[in-house]
Structures are given as C-alpha cells and as structure tokens.
Amino acid sequence: MYEGAVQDLIDEFGRLPGIGPKSAQRIAFYVLEADREDINRLADAIRVVKDKVKFCEVCFNVSEQDLCNICRDAKRDQLLLCVVEESKDVMAVERTRTFRGRYHVLGGSINPIAGVGPDQLHIRELLTRLQDDTIEEVIIATDPNLEGEATSTYLARMLGSLGIKITRLASGLPVGGDLEYADEVTLGRAFEGRRSVTG
Amino acid sequence: MYEGAVQDLIDEFGRLPGIGPKSAQRIAFYVLEADREDINRLADAIRVVKDKVKFCEVCFNVSEQDLCNICRDAKRDQLLLCVVEESKDVMAVERTRTFRGRYHVLGGSINPIAGVGPDQLHIRELLTRLQDDTIEEVIIATDPNLEGEATSTYLARMLGSLGIKITRLASGLPVGGDLEYADEVTLGRAFEGRRSVTG
C-alpha cells in the first residue's frame, strides 16, 4: 500500500501481538514523526532485551544474570515454591505482596491443541528442584482456565507421591465484584470453597 | 517492576500511541521469546523508516524520494487537487479508486487548543501551488470533525478569491449503516445534502 520502508514498518508492527493493521499504521506514522532520539531508544531497547535478558537457571523467570533477583534473594522463604505459567505471573503474584517464597516458571501450560505437552514445559526441572531442595509446600498458581487446570491436575498427580504439601490457588468471587454478575462456574467454585466465618 | 532491560522495553512500547501498560508488557515478552531474526527485522524497520522516509517536496505525502510516487505519476489528473490532513488520508482516498488527481497534505488540522494554527500547516505551500499550477478544482477532504471543519472553512475563505472551484466532501449517512443509529448531526447533514433521484 505505502512505499517500501513505511509499509515494511507497518507489517513489522502488525506482527506484534494485539496490534491490528490500523494500530500498526498509527504507530508507524508516530515513529515517522517522532524525534529521532526517542526512536533510537525504542530500537535499542528491542535489541538490548534480546542481548541482555535470559532466563533464570533455577526458576526460568526472566533475568539479566544467571540467577534472577528472586532466586538470589536469601531473605525469601526457601520452603515455599509457587509454580506459575509465565514470568508475567511472577510479577502479578509479587504485586500482591502476600507471597515471600520462590517461584518456578513452567513456560506455558499444557495445551494439546497447540501441541504443548508436559515435555515442552519446565516440569522435569521442577521435579529436580523438589528432590534437591527442602521445599515444604508447592503452590500451583496456573491460570484458572482449561489449560491451567489441566496443567494443575497433571502437576498434582506427578508431585503427589513426593510427600510435599501441594496446594492450588482458591477460585471464587473476585473482590469488588458483584455476585449477580459472576459466571456460574465461578459462583459454583465460590460455594465449593466456602469458609467458616464463625470461630 | 521488572529488571532493567525488560522494564525499559515495556516503557518504550508504552510510549507508542494506543498501547497501554498491559499491551506493552505483552509485546515486550513477545519480543523476548521471538526469534532473534524477526526482532532484528523489527528494530531495523524502525531505524530505516527514520533514515529513508521523508516528505514529498510538492505535496508533503510520505515518500522515499524527493517527489512521492503520486506526484511523479504523469498519468494523474493535473487539474484536480485533493487537500487532506495526513498521509494516512491519502491512502484512504486512494483505496476508494474514485480520485485520479493529486494531493496536498496539510500535516494536521487547525486546532487552537493544541496550539495548531494555519501557520503550522502546509497552507502557504498550497497557495503557492495553486498560483503556479493550473488547477481547476480543489477538493477539501479534511476530517468531518470540529478541527477538520474549521480547517475547511479557513481554506474555503483563503482560496475563495483565486477563481478556482472549491468543493468539500459530502457529509451524510455512511453506506451500510442504519438510519436509526445515525447521530443527529450526520442525519441532519444527510437531509441538507439530499439529492434528486428522479431525472
């Protein structure tokens, strides 16, 4: 549609997740009109992240060193391990400030349709960690969707024989939400997981 | 939140138009996990567009040469000139395949609140073109919003004395739309602009 370089850039932005053709065009024109300095910073940031960022050797969280800053932190509780799908989930849990243990990032969830089985995830490394380290509780914090539940079920079965406490994050009503707008599965889970509020 | 380079990249993507913090994070992780070759292509495309693409000396459309491919095309109708706000609008008009004349890109619209007056737009260059070239009709194709209408009114007044036919794109019901869902201004314009359908 456009001449060479502009169309190339629109195509490249259009390949990024969540960016449609209109957004790609809008961003490409923004780049065209922005200060060269800002644009160089963007291009550099893209390259630098590929050069500098790798995955933690222990937990597979993103890291610029061999060990991520959580695995390096001796003050974290060494007895608790939270298993998540992605590095993004580590950040989500960290933001709650309720968990002070360490993590294990699986690198996805079991999804037969997309061809992702247990072997494509960092499950073998999780088993090795559980055999080597003294961990008392594994908290499975995969997504509360079909793939996350399948992964959770698989892990629970795999780890059940290790004699470690295995827990799963609670499902229920989101805080601040309206009961009448909750979907029936969530509301059903909230009933199943109901807790005593009297002493 | 994240360690250095990942957060830098999230910040840079977050500065692009239409990309919020969640999208920026999603794209940054995509970049982290994508093939290095794809990512180099993206970073190169960003730099190349700044190096190679400039604005046409005649019409201010984006171009990799001194003259854009439309101004270079001798087969375009030299008597018709379509005035638009942005290069994106040139593409939008080209896609209709109904206009075979040439363009003049203003580089925006009159917007006192944003501090954009006639002097910030390529209006002086438009006047020079109209004095030098033999143009029979100027079609004002600015956006049908407040700023576009203000720009159109300003241009119509400026160009009125040149003895050239000045037209404005029709406002009315969008094709394929529902009359009952049209806003009252659009529907009002459709009434004002009604056309005879009998011979």
UniProtKB/TrEMBL annotation, chains A, B:
The lineage of its organism: Bacteria, Bacillati, Actinomycetota, Actinomycetes, Micrococcales. This is Recombination protein RecR. May play a role in DNA repair. It seems to be involved in an RecBC-independent recombinational process of DNA repair. It may act with RecF and RecO. The keyword Membrane does not apply. Keywords: DNA damage, DNA recombination, DNA repair, Metal-binding, Zinc, Zinc-finger. Belongs to the RecR family. The gene is recR. PROSITE patterns: RECR, TOPRIM. Gene3D superfamilies: 3.30.60.80, 3.40.1360.10, 6.10.250.240, RecR Domain 1. Pfam families: RecR_C, RecR_HhH, RecR_ZnF, Toprim_4. GO terms for molecular function: DNA binding; zinc ion binding.
